[in-house]
Each structure stands twice: as C-alpha cells, then as structure tokens.
Amino acid sequence: MFTQEKAAKGGEDAHFVLEEGGDGKRKHSAAGVADGVGGWAQQGVDAGLYSRQLMKWSQQRLEHTDVPCVHDALAFSYRMTKVMGSSTACLILLHEGILETLNVGDSGFLLARPGEEGGTEHYKVVFKTTEQQHTFNMPYQLGTYSRDMPDDGEFKALEVRKGDIILMATDGVWDNVFEERILNIFEFAAGNLDSAAKEVAEMSIRIGMSYDPTPFSTRAQAVGLNHAGGKLDDVTVVLAHVV
Fold first, then answer.
1. From 40's CA, which of 130, 144, 148, 187 has a CA 20 to 30 Å away?
2. Is residue 5 situated within a structural domain?
3. Residue 33 near residue 15 (C-beta atoms within 8 A)
4. Is residue 4 part of a domain?
5. What is the pLDDT of residue 31?
6. Does residue 152 contact residue 159 with C-beta atoms inside 8 Å?
C-alpha cells in the first residue's frame, strides 16, 4: 500500500500514554505502541484497526485495574480485540521505580541513562528490546491466524533512575536509526523531550527514504539479501523522562 493511502486512513500504528495521578489516585504510569501488519491491506483489511483496538483495550485495563500488570493488560486486550488483522505490541508500566515491560514482535523500547554527573551529556543504552522474528522481516504478531500469543512476548522488570529516558517506538524507527544517532539526539535536545521526539520521528522518515546504511539494511545483508538504505514505514514515537 502506498504511504499516502495509509496516511489517509490514519496509518497502521497506534499508541497510548497513561500518566500517573490522572484520576487523583493512580500511582503508576504506562504507555504502549503497536504496529498493524500492513500485509492485510492485500485482503482489503485496514491494518490499523487491529493495532488501535489492541492499544485501546490495553490502556483501559491498565487504567482501571487495582493491581496493573503488563501481562494481564495485553492478554485482556488480545481477548477483547475482535476485528480482523494482526499487530506487534509493546507495553511499559512504571511503578515505584520499577519499569515492567512486555514486547511482542519488532516494536520496542530503549532505556537510556545520562552520565554519572547527572547532566544531559554522554547518554548510554541501559537496555533495548530484542526484535522477535520467526524469520527475517517476519516479526511475532498478535491477531487473526497468528500462532503467537501475549505469553510469547519478552518480559523485563528494570530499575530506573531519575533522569533516565525511555524511548518507545514502532519499527519505522528501529529499522532506520542506529542507537548512536538516537543518543546524540537526546544529548543535543538537552532535556527538551518534545524536540527530541520530533527529531527521532523526522530522522526515521528521512533515512527511510534514503540510501544511507541502516539497521534494516545491515540485518538484510547479514541474511544474504541485497537491500541498501532505509525502509520507509509508519513511525510512532513515545518519549518519557523519569523524574
């Protein structure tokens, strides 16, 4: 499907952000990103419908459950999402300094930490999700006809610190932008998260239309495929700062 056609339908990605204290009681923050599998368009199915429902039900579960859990939220959302389609998914939940995460497929997140002096220079990657793929460019996915389930996702519980940055994104980012460039954006932004998120998204699109070396082209060549440059795709970025 052409990019302009996907844009006319709102794209195939989806996301949500749930802030701590939004109802005066909530003691946790949460977020999620999902990427509807574009191949459904060949069957006349809007691939964005599944990802949007998956994130809607995940948000509702995390918002209204007394003891929130990413496993429970994604399993509930999977059961409640009835439309045809499939999607990757990544959820994060922050409560009392612990970041719980569950990732299915090739969306994901990166946890970056500033230098020991507490400044905004010299960020390093503390953790990054690993793409889950059956074969190259065939990620795990939840949905119609897929054998993958929420329990197949990668679960992590990580301690976070004040000043940490959490970047969640769909594969439109991870396929096109190397970690070093993302860290450089964080350093240049000097704490301006809106600016950093916009630059990550715009860089992903620019590189996606280029012939620059990319993570995707590197992986393609590693399995014997002749692919040069980026991989233009939907891009969703959620950027959070631990305070």
1. 130
2. no
3. yes
4. no
5. 98
6. no
Residue 167 lies in a domain: yes
Torsion of CA 224, 229, 232, 235, to 10 degrees: 100
Per-residue confidence (pLDDT) for residue 121, from 0 to 100: 61
Tally the domains of the chain.
1
CA atoms within 13 A on the CB side of 154: 19
The model scores a pTM over 0.70: yes
| Domain hosting residue 232, numbered range | 11-19+27-241
- First CA to last CA across the chain, in angstroms? 41
Q: What are the residues facing 35 on neighbouring strands?
A: 13, 88
Cβ(150)–Cβ(102) under 8 Å?
yes
- Domain-embedded: residue 128: yes
pLDDT < 50 regions, the chain? 1-2
Dihedral-angle region of residue 210 (phi above 0 means left; psi in -120 to 50 means alpha; beta otherwise): beta
Residue 45, token pair as written in the block: 């199915």
Q: What is the pLDDT of residue 7?
A: 58
